């Protein structure tokens, strides 16, 4: 585990990464990738990991006994806990959004390979349901699966989710779960966490039909609370290096001009750090 303090200025060519304090090496964190991670806990001071892929040598969890992990930043300790059965969170490439009261909403993803054959212990793989899953980070036993509603989007993986107004989750891009094709960024689904309802939006792309279809991009909500910025991504053939902004009031995309030829990246995190002035 490594930590980068962002509350003080630092050189971009030599960022002051440091190992986290606390006896984490003796407790041990999960060896996992393609998981979803989010902030939770009573004071928002824990990082919670759900799903993902573990090396083939690791003992895999079944669909009905999912172990999640939390990392307490105050003590540097890892802990594990079990989510309710039947949650189907043994998946990779899912995305998550966290509300102000500590509820995390997880959607999408694809079956995580749990052994060298990529099959579950019974030799078959249960189809993932397209339902939203709510994780109560304060009391995990209260976590629930949202009921079926109509319409519902086809599952995606390697997409992003952005929570706006502490109510609406905006799902962007990703790979289509059935075809594996990159999804258009004009094809947007919204989820209302209070009404448990999905709705669809056809956004307007910028000139030349950009930004292009993609997955594995990074996103963040801008300080105005209505604009979503994305960077990079991958469409199965190309890695992108462009920056685009979605206005969620007009549902219009705008490509931003950048002053540097940054190398394209995918599967990269982009936390927002904004000047309060």
UniProtKB/TrEMBL annotation:
<protein>
    <recommendedName>
        <fullName>Galactose oxidase</fullName>
    </recommendedName>
</protein>
<dbReference type="InterPro" id="IPR015915">
    <property type="entry name" value="Kelch-typ_b-propeller"/>
</dbReference>
<dbReference type="Pfam" id="PF24681">
    <property type="entry name" value="Kelch_KLHDC2_KLHL20_DRC7"/>
</dbReference>
<keyword id="KW-0880">Kelch repeat</keyword>
<keyword id="KW-0677">Repeat</keyword>
